[in-house]
TrEMBL record:
Recorded superkingdom: Eukaryota
InterPro entries: DER1 (IPR007599)
Function: May be involved in the degradation of misfolded endoplasmic reticulum (ER) luminal proteins.
Key words of the record: Endoplasmic reticulum, Membrane, Transmembrane, Transmembrane helix
PANTHER family per UniProt: DER1-LIKE PROTEIN, DERLIN
Localization, UniProt: Endoplasmic reticulum membrane
Lineage: Eukaryota, Sar, Alveolata, Ciliophora, Intramacronucleata
Topological type in the membrane: Multi-pass membrane protein
Family: Belongs to the derlin family.
GO BP, sorted A to Z: response to stress
Keyword Glycosyltransferase attached: no
GO cellular component: endoplasmic reticulum membrane
Protein name per the record: Derlin
């Protein structure tokens, strides 16, 4: 059984398994040493006191260790994995540049809306980008409910509202992801303005130090398929969630 888990774990994309592993770590810490979470939450005053790690660590806590937390992890894996594998080959640097954009804009939202942790908005932003770029995938939600991925963000918002979850984080994630798609996909085509072009030094860094640890990206990179992410997608395979 442990071998099966190790095989599954190593097959996950690099950022997906790293992010989920840190979530589990902080989930365990929050379960047994909840006072330690204060050291990773977003706090503007502490950040100005040079506790720079708070700009990033508040994205890596999504609840304390429990059965519901494990179920939530499966959803997080779904969100991140589908978005990450969309940035294959030479486009893999664009994925990390998008993550950096999400972190920076999310920090601004945390300051404006006084949020200590923003992992929910971060995951929603990832799923929103995937749904917009692959709108015709079939998603199977809870209770056998099926729909196209283009409706998935709105289904999530409705579901969170019905189950009394934090809809504000969903809306923050939606705004962050929508602004990214506006700057990355829409303005370069309609206005010939490229505000989020991944810098060359950033691409070189990712290709040199990160791609080698990610088999699916390395294989495509070695084939030298240097296309930008597609703007439109056609009918895809069904994806089960829940």
């Amino acid at each position: 059984m442990m071998n099966d888990f190790n095989s599954w774990y190593t097959k996950q994309p690099l950022f997906t398994r790293t992010y989920v592993s840190v979530l589990v770590l902080f989930g365990i810490i929050g379960k047994f040493k909840p006072a330690y979470l204060w050291y990773i939450m977003f706090d503007a005053k502490k950040i100005f006191s040079l506790q720079i790690h708070r700009l990033f660590t508040h994205y890596f806590f999504s609840g304390t260790l429990s059965f519901s937390f494990i179920l939530h992890l499966l959803f997080i894996i779904f969100c991140i994995k589908n978005c990450e594998i969309m940035f294959e080959g030479s486009n893999y640097a664009d994925f990390y540049y998008m993550i950096l954009y999400f972190f920076i804009t999310g920090d601004i939202m945390s300051w404006l809306f006084d949020y200590g942790f923003l992992s929910g908005a971060f995951c929603f932003a990832l799923i929103y980008v995937w749904c917009k770029r692959k709108p015709f995938e079939t998603v199977r939600f809870y209770f056998g409910f099926q729909f196209k991925s283009e409706y998935f963000p709105w289904v999530l918002i409705a579901f969170d509202a019905i189950t009394d979850q934090d809809v504000v984080q969903d809306l923050i994630g939606l705004g962050i992801a929508h602004s990214y798609l506006l700057f990355k996909d829409f303005l370069p085509v309609t206005q010939n303005i490229s505000l989020l072009e991944t810098p060359k030094f950033f691409k070189n860094f990712v290709n040199k130090y990160i791609v080698k640890y990610t088999p699916f990206a390395r294989n495509r990179f070695n084939q030298q398929q240097f296309q930008q992410p597609q703007r439109q997608f056609f009918q895809g395979q069904g994806i089960r969630l829940g």
